[in-house]
Fold:
Amino acid sequence: MDSNQNNDIIGDFSLICPECGVGNPKNTENCIVCDKDLKHTVAFFEDDPFDLEITEEHLIEYRKNFWGTDRTGKINKYALNKIKKLEFGSSISRLIFEYNRKRVILPLREENLIKIKEFLK
Ligand SMILES: [Zn+2]
Structure:
């Protein structure tokens, strides 16, 4: 994706399928390639130690292996309405919030952190 374009990145095919990584039209119901149900997927971000999916009700963290090439199968699911004290770290880019009274820190690529802000604010 060309990051020099304007901020309106929600054009066609901007909804990345969390299952197969293919770009889909924003309001699609099922992935055009793997048929995964995307009705509740709001956004998806591929990052180094994990992939992050935002649905209407959850932030979902798909853990990846050390090399960031494959998912380990470990999934952390956070209900959006239970996320407290959300912070967007800057010098080191990270997403920080309190969940069930525990502090969760997710180090993220800067470009993903900027985009995620729009969805969680
Ligand atoms: Zn797919």
